[in-house]
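User: We ran a pulldown and think these components assemble together. Before we commit to crystallization trials, I'd like a predicted model of the whole complex to look at. Sequences follow.
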Amino acid sequence: MTINWPEQIFAEFKKLDVKQVVYVPDAGHSKLIQMCDADPEIHSVSLTTEEEGVAQLGGAWAGGQRGVLLVQSSGVGNCINMLSLQHETRMPLFMIVTMRGEWGEFNPWQVAMGKSTQEVLEASGVYVYRADSAEEVEATVSAGARFAYQTGRMVAVLIGQRVIGTKNFNK
Amino acid sequence: MQAIQKIKPTLNRREVVARILQDRGDALAVTSLGNPTFDVAAAGDCAQNFYLWGAMGGAVMFGMGIALAQPTKRVIVFVGDGEMMMGLGSLATVACHRPDNLSIVVIDNEHYAETGMQPAHAGRGVSINAVATAVGFSQSILVHDQAGLEKAIDTLYSHQGPVTLCVKVTTDPAPTALPPRDGPYLRSRFREALMGSASHV
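Assistant: Here's a predicted model for the assembly, 372 residues in total across the polymer chains.
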């Protein structure tokens, strides 16, 4: 049986009363983005760069709403200084990162951030959880999001490239 | 080649910000780091102000997050021109998503005042006001004088947003006005003002 993990993540968003979902599109997040875009109760916002989402979710929390940032590993590097907002105000930030540059990667330009994503996040004060199989995604997202919102911390769930599948450039 | 028409700024930033905030009612204010934070603090510190002391380039998006969460409140984001240049993409994102209660005030002195008054892009031919128009703002106003400011204030608070107001100001130094900078304090104060005790749950 195939696990529909994007649907499980979306169900978690609804349980957690997530109201703002912000993203720079990534193939690994495409189904989840479609569901968020289609939900009238969610402000689903497409960004020009990932750091915009970090700042927006700071404002969301200041204004009383929960949010989630969806990015690809390459976008994590764009967020670093902006993370000082949540770091310094101790507001929660919950992000779900689809990994590139690891399992069976074709594009060598993805390797740099693929290699450093976890270290860079941890060096910036973000708590990192990984899900490397479809079975782990739901529970990891659920626990990570609760940890973030309940303790006012920054949390990233990294979804391994093994879960998403390797991008085929030769189709 | 078309010459860039230069009008010498005359407005004082502190007076501009104080004048805008005089009509704020229950509006929420967000400030970018540096002088916009000091300008808003000088006009009167209150729980409805959120000062960013860093996170450069993020003030407009921080304001958008609040605006979406608090649709019945006007949110005014005060940014410097250097801050706005760092977050130009955020103007495009705001224009696409169209939060109707968000207004952006660019306090434009065409310099990086905090770091030694280096000339900034806004004084070298880049029009932030024109950028806002180009990305889709239906209301993007450029103001050089008091009469223009008076006319724009009503739009800032009442027109369906998003609205951008660029105000050209002098580089005259202003006395120091430092608001609180403890992040958790600013966070809790702001949230409590909006949600009362529910903000602590």
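Chain A has a mean pLDDT of 95. That may be worth checking against your pulldown data before setting up trials.

User: Thanks, that helps.
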